[in-house]
Design goal:
Elements (H helix, E strand, L loop, with lengths): L1 H19 L8 H8 L5 H7 L2 H6 L9 H5 L17 H30 L15 H28 L5 E2 L6 H26 L6 H5 L18 H17 L2 E2 H17 L18 H10 L10 H5 L12 H20 L1
Helix pairs in contact: 1-6, 6-7, 6-11, 7-10, 8-10
Length: 342
């Protein structure tokens, strides 16, 4: 997340924070008239000699560096903020904003594309497909996002403040470890997600915690994030824990984090394609469709090995395909219509 924050600071947030909390609001009039700002920015200063300027002057800020108070800062078009990049309140608010915007973009972009081009819309004729289900899935997701973002914030904040084991230079651990860390990440998170997910099916918490997600017996990609906020957060914890235990390249981790969200959307497309070579290894959409239909099978995220070890694996078969039910109902209706015509 620190890569995203750095880019956002560089291109957007530095200017935004400078406009919201400019150094000028926290300097004395004598400092300003002594030459802190040149004549080309008199209008800028005047605009801040207002109720807003007086209001924000009471907002806490770190000690302003001497160079901000003594040098003619505005010899260029750049205006500094009293909240520097490494100031924790600024980081918190910036991360909340970026996470809020980012999760909405990823959700609607990936789920929208999957819904439009991968999800079989004929599945919406299934008797267990709810009325207005897509709308309800989106509504639950949007309601869950704020809580999930707040719960996730401490992990992102600790990351940008340098407490994780992420690194920038590939030479630090070598190319072999870089490649291996992908598999370590997938195996580690898959196994932990399996147990978090399986624990959420325990009677002590299933009804209030995880059952809302199983409302969607025939899910669409928009159901991928339609969780109770705590449920969605708990299943994401293994991904956040990983870089605090294992070294991982910063850019690689960001890519894997995006992949995780994409995969979560992909396995909710109710697809039951069976018979492919990786079916017994990869926990794909067919496996997760069975989980939504039968509840106590196929808890895994990427692979089937954890389910096999936990004796919760169910092999996808053509006869389990919910589309078979749709086709059977359509055939029955056609037969009944034919009988009426006769």
């Amino acid at each position: 997340m620190d890569i995203v924050l750095h880019l956002a600071d560089e291109y957007v947030l530095d200017k935004a924070w400078a406009a919201l909390l400019p150094v000028s609001a926290f300097t004395t009039a004598s400092t300003n008239t002594a030459g802190l700002y040149n004549s080309s920015h008199v209008s800028f200063l005047s605009s801040h000699s207002s109720a807003w300027s007086q209001l924000i002057s009471y907002i806490p800020h770190p000690p302003l560096p001497d160079e901000l108070l003594t040098s003619p800062l505005v010899a260029s078009e750049t205006v500094a903020s009293a909240w520097p990049r490494d100031y924790m309140p600024r980081q918190i608010l910036s991360l909340l904003t970026l996470t809020f915007v980012g999760i909405h973009i990823m959700y609607f972009l990936f789920a929208g594309l999957s819904y439009q081009y991968i999800f079989d819309h004929e599945m919406m004729k299934h008797p267990r497909f709810l009325k207005n289900q897509v709308k309800l899935e989106i509504k639950m997701s949007l309601q869950a996002f704020p809580g999930m973002i707040l719960l996730t914030l401490p992990w992102f904040l600790a990351e940008v403040r340098g407490h994780s084991k992420m690194y920038d230079n590939v030479d630090e651990y070598g190319w072999l470890y870089l490649v291996a860390s992908v598999f370590i990440f997938l195996v580690f998170t898959d196994y932990l997600v399996y147990w978090v997910h399986r624990w959420e099916h325990h009677p002590i918490c299933y009804k209030w915690l995880h059952k809302p997600h199983h409302k969607w017996l025939i899910p669409t990609p928009f159901a991928s994030h339609a969780f109770h906020p705590l449920d969605g957060y708990l299943q994401s914890v293994p991904y956040h824990v990983f870089p605090y235990i294992f070294p991982i390249h910063r850019k690689l981790f960001l890519g894997l984090f995006v992949f995780v969200n994409f995969w979560s959307i992909l396995i909710h497309d109710s697809d039951m394609i069976t018979g492919h070579p990786l079916e017994k290894v990869i926990n794909g959409p067919a496996h997760h469709t069975l989980h939504h239909l039968y509840f106590t099978v196929n808890y895994g995220q990427y692979f089937t090995w954890a389910d096999r070890m936990g004796k919760s694996y169910r092999q996808p078969k053509a006869e389990y395909d919910p589309m078979a039910t749709v086709k059977a109902l359509e055939a029955q209706r056609a037969k009944q219509a034919l009988g009426k015509d006769e």
